[in-house]
Design a protein that fits this description.
The protein has four helices and seven strands, in the order αβββαβββααβ. It has about 180 residues and is α/β, with parallel strands linked by helices. The protein starts with a helix and ends in a 10-residue tail after the last strand.
Length: about 180
């Protein structure tokens, strides 16, 4: 009887899979070579989209309280700046090579989304905000692909997808958590 129980135990250990936790898919920049000095990068204030999450999980976007459900549209408006407004990122020409042709687009390539959270922010709220920011990028890229290539981003070939990523690079800067307190 003990042999059968032992065999069953081994069978279940071998055939079952362990669930693994999955994190955020982020690629960190490579470390600087030891002989290279750090350089400060100057970013114009209009090119920065600031998103703060406080300890009570309230969202402050560009200094204004905002519901997380409205974050995607606000981010898309910032990324596209279709009306070339002064308080949104500056439009610059970007040239990409697709299929042997050089194409030039005017876009907000120099933008940065600054995501900052309080030490007391719930992880679920942080992930929810991250998802909305990434979804905004995905929608902007998809709209751009449909307008310029006639198909959704996911259906483009690798060269075309790389061109779209060059035109709308995903730039989400995450600061170390601080104690911001509550949004009033």
């Amino acid at each position: 009887m003990a042999d059968i129980a032992f065999l069953l135990l081994i069978f279940f250990l071998v055939t079952t899979t362990m669930s693994t936790d999955k994190g955020l898919a982020r690629r960190l920049p490579p470390p600087l070579p030891p002989n290279m000095e750090k350089q400060d990068v100057e970013v114009k204030e209009r090119n920065i989209f600031t998103v703060l999450i406080n300890s009570t999980n309230q969202l402050l976007v560009e200094g204004e309280p905002l519901d997380v459900r409205d974050l995607r549209e606000k981010t898309k408006e910032f990324l596209k700046n279709e009306a070339n407004l002064d308080h949104l990122p500056e439009l610059v020409p970007v040239t990409v090579s697709v299929g042997g042709k050089d194409l030039t687009f005017v876009t907000t390539k120099n933008h940065v989304i600054s995501l900052q959270n309080d030490r007391g922010t719930e992880y679920q709220k942080y992930i929810e905000v991250q998802n909305e920011l990434v979804a905004a990028y995905n929608e902007v890229r998809d709209e751009f692909s449909r307008e310029n290539f006639g198909m959704p981003y996911e259906d483009l070939n690798a060269e075309q997808q790389e061109a779209v990523q060059t035109v709308y690079p995903q730039k989400i800067s995450e600061a170390e958590p601080k104690n911001y307190g509550g949004v009033k």
